[in-house]
Design brief:
The chain is of the alpha+beta class. The protein is built from 8 helices and 4 strands. It binds glutathione.
């Protein structure tokens, strides 16, 4: 049985949960991290030395880094994983590129917006950091707006891939009413894409609930 460890209010845990729902793979999940603790225990650190979530156990496979976990789940499903992870080298690399971009560029740009607006009491929020995060994130979302500009329904073309899932989890944060602040530009194509991916049952179950 696939065992995912991670609290359900973590963006990086949403990703593999949504993938699992898309693939229809049976799994179990245990809440760990933040208010649930566990991540600082020697047992958990042996599994994931970062003390972060998510982690995954499956037989003798132990894994961390959410995007690697998502890729592993697709490899388990086999073939192109219901279209989520294309097999042609160019198409697969194109999906992978967005996963790397999320980790290297989008996440650092957006982090202060989410942390201040969702995880920090109002009186302690650093609104200068929020404003900077809005500016920096908007530059990233403008890249996605441009990508969707040729009328493609999904990031990689006509079908949903891992790129939509991973970026969709972060779009949920950016577009969420929880983080609405002044100066956030409108991206019509991003909104239309987000409405499309929001209909997926995996999104509805794990990603749509209120941020906390
Ligand atoms: N790059 C890592 C980041 C993991 C990460 O920072 N996870 C956060 C939650 S989104 C975490 O573990 N926070 C501490 C906690 O939950 O205790 C990944 O994608 O898995």
């Amino acid at each position: 049985m696939i065992h995912l460890l991670g609290r359900a209010n973590s963006t990086n845990v949403w990703k593999p949960l949504w993938v699992l729902e898309e693939l229809g793979l049976p799994y179990e999940r245990t809440d760990v991290g933040m208010e649930h603790g566990v991540v600082d225990t020697p047992e958990y650190r042996a599994l994931n030395p970062n003390g972060r979530v998510p982690s995954l156990r499956h037989g003798d496979v132990e894994l961390w880094e959410s995007n690697s976990v998502c890729r592993y789940l697709c490899l388990l499903a086999g073939g192109d994983a219901k279209g989520l992870y294309p097999t042609a080298p160019g198409a697969r690399a194109s999906v992978d590129r967005w996963l790397d971009w999320q980790l290297s560029t989008l996440s650092p740009a957006e982090r202060d917006l989410f942390w201040n607006m969702v995880r920090t009491p109002e009186e302690k929020r650093d609104m200068k950091a929020v404003a900077a995060a809005v500016t920096n994130s908007a530059k990233c979302w403008a890249i996605i707006e441009d990508r969707l500009g040729d009328g493609r329904p999904y990031i990689e073309g006509d079908t949903l891939t891992l790129a939509d899932i991973v970026l969709g989890c972060f779009a949920r944060r950016w577009l969420g009413e929880e983080v609405r602040v002044a100066g956030m530009p409108e991206f019509p194509k991003l909104n239309a894409w987000f409405a499309r991916i929001s209909e997926r049952p995996g999104f509805q179950r794990w990603v749509a609930p209120k941020l906390f």
